[in-house]
């Protein structure tokens, strides 16, 4: 697929981190980018900087997502690329100790369900709404391609650590969407792939550096090569290749400097 001014994209979580880097990289190719995020101030700032548009969207809410896509399409036309980076999750071990009573407690089903909504259901919601729009559009090339859907999973999908029972299993679920969804959409010319980032220097990690530099250095040293956290622009570079390369379909791409997460 050609990435130029004739192409439109939607990036969820585009106000910061991996989403912002993806939005900036796509815009750098001339793509018209719509940013979905809850952070209006940051989202508008990024949109203005890249010549795109911002739409306040809650990925947990069906109507909010549908309204966001309608507004993005009104601004830029039918998106051909979706990059889904936004998520919501709660952490916790399956069984842990209550700090007050010392008794065993379990991660509640409600907390797990919240994470399922914020990771897995939201991924399906955003991807399927994008696919519905793409399906009714004209192909963009001789292959009959109509769009590229790129979901964000995590290295935790394969290396889930202690306290990541929800995050790890549900990011694995995002990977599980890829093949059946790609097969569902193959006759429509819509590709589906996921990216599994390792530890990246996103704003939450950079804040972590401020109060625990020793741990920050240990995290960098834990990456086999290069011995540093990933840069958001490196994630975005992979996003560009997946979007542009029409032969990449139904794949899960790990980008992590060869790290394999220990239990903790």
TrEMBL record:
GO molecular function: oxidoreductase activity
Source organism: Novosphingobium aureum
Keywords for the protein's UniProt record, in alphabetical order: Oxidoreductase
The keyword Flavoprotein is assigned to this record: no
Entry annotated with the keyword Signal: no
Name assigned to this protein: SDR family oxidoreductase
Lineage of the organism: Bacteria, Pseudomonadati, Pseudomonadota, Alphaproteobacteria, Sphingomonadales
Ranges that cross the membrane: none
Pfam families hit by this protein: adh_short_C2
């Amino acid at each position: 697929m050609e990435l130029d001014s004739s192409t439109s994209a939607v990036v969820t979580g585009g106000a910061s981190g991996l989403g912002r880097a993806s939005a900036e990289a796509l815009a750098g190719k001339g793509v018209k980018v719509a940013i979905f995020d809850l952070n209006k101030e940051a989202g508008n700032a990024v949109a203005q900087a890249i010549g795109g548009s911002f739409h306040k969207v809650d990925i947990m809410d069906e109507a909010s997502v549908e309204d966001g896509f309608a507004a993005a399409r009104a601004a830029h036309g039918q998106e051909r690329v979706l990059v889904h980076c936004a998520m919501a999750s709660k952490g916790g071990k399956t069984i842990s100790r209550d700090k007050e009573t010392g008794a065993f407690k379990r991660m509640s089903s409600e907390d797990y369900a919240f994470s399922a909504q914020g990771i897995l259901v939201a991924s399906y919601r955003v991807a399927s709404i994008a696919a519905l729009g793409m399906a009714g559009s004209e192909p963009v090339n001789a292959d009959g391609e109509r769009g590229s859907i790129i979901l964000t999973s995590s290295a935790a999908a394969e290396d889930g650590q202690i306290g990541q029972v929800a995050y790890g299993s549900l990011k694995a679920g995002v990977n599980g969407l890829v093949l059946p969804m790609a097969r569902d959409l193959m006759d429509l010319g819509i590709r589906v792939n996921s990216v599994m980032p390792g530890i990246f220097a996103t704003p939450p990690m950079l804040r972590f550096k401020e109060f625990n530099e020793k741990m920050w250095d240990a995290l960098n040293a834990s990456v086999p090569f290069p011995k540093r956290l990933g840069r958001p622009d490196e994630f975005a570079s992979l996003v560009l290749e997946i979007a542009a390369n029409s032969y990449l379909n139904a794949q899960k791409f790990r980008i992590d400097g060869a790290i394999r997460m220990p239990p903790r």
